Amino acid sequence: MKIFKIFMVALLACAFLQARSVDEIKQSGLIKIGVFSDKAPFGYVDENGQYQGYDVYFARRIAKDLGVRVEFTALDPASRVEYAKSGKVDIVLANFTVTKERAQQVDFALPYMKVALGVVSPQNAVIKSLDDLKGKTLIITKGTTAETFFSKHKQIKLLKFDQYAQAYNALLDGRGDAFSTDNTEVLAWSKANKGFEVGIASLGEIDTIAPAVKKGNKSLLEWLNNEIIELGKEQFFHKNYDETLRSIYGQSSNADDLVVEGGKI
């Protein structure tokens, strides 16, 4: 009896972890998408408790084209891989940078953004180079490309947090000399917070950001790739930029610096 119970628990666990195909998602009437809740302007919760941002705008279009409702799940940077692997969400759309390490654990669709690292610091002590960071404390968020990049620089002390809100509060409180994450975000944050400046606007290689699904979920991956290609024909991500990011970066900003249409860099 004990062995049977263990077998049933294992069987149920496997069922829970099973990736949902496009047909199963449509039949359920619901798609589960993991997004950030504290990373404006890409994924955040507004004053009315509604999810907003560049990633969320895309997520809602996905749900519309599938003909289903969308259920958002708030993710931390370090939890994105686990939520895709476990099947807790169907898609991760949380400013997810494509890396070789992550691609071994999840399947990435075609990209819809491009990005590098940036560093923001107080205007009275602007960090302008890696040399300026030697012996200083750099705030980062766990599970990000910034953590991977700066972990190789032993002369820089890293102060790590689980959530973006915690990291920004640490910078505001003066617990670190600077904060690093995607340049697209620190540029937006510095415009909204007087007294801070992005001294390093592009660091490391240019990376891409893409949706991620549970590894082996060919049905949903193929649908997403086709969706991104079709959306490119109508310049959807430029429209998304105009709706969610233009007011942040300024009317003179160039959407092509960030936007990827049709999955083509």
From TrEMBL:
The keyword Membrane does not apply. Residues 1-21 form the signal peptide. This is Amino acid ABC transporter, periplasmic cysteine-binding protein. Transmembrane segments: none annotated. Pfam families: SBP_bac_3. It comes from the Bacteria. It comes from Candidatus Campylobacter infans. Residues 30-248 form the Solute-binding protein family 3/N-terminal domain. Keywords: Signal.
